[in-house]
Amino acid sequence: MEKTGDTQGCQTKNEEDIPKSSPFDFVMKQFQGKRSSSGKRKEQPSAIKKFFSGFDFGKSEGKDGGETEGTEKNNCSADDQSEKRDLSLDDGPSHPVSEAESPSGEQRFNQLMQKLGKKPNSKNLDLNNCALNAADVTELASLLPFLPELEEISLSWNGCVGGALKTLTVQLHHVNLLRVLRLNNCRLTAEDVTSLGEAFEIVPQLEELDLSWNSNIGGKLSLLTKKLPKGCKIKLLKITDCNLTAKDGESLAEMLNVIPNLEVLDLSINKHIGCSMKVIAQDLKNVPGLKELNLHMCGLKQDSLQGLDAALQHLAELRKLDISCNKEIGGSFKDAAAHLANLKNLEVLDLHQCCVTEEDVTVLSQVIPLLSSLQELNLSSNKNVGVSSAPLLGRLRFLPKLKSVSISNCDLGEESFSSLAEAALHLPELEILDLSWNKCVGGNLKLLLGALKLATEIQVLRLSSCNLVAEDLALLTLLTQDGHLARLRKLDLSYNNSVSDEGWMVFCHGLAAFKELSELDVSLRPSSCRDCGTWFSELLAALTKLPALAELGMQRWVLSESQRQQLESFNQDNKRNIRFDC
Question: Which residue ranges are recorded for the region named Disordered (predicted)?
Answer without folding.
Answer: 1-106
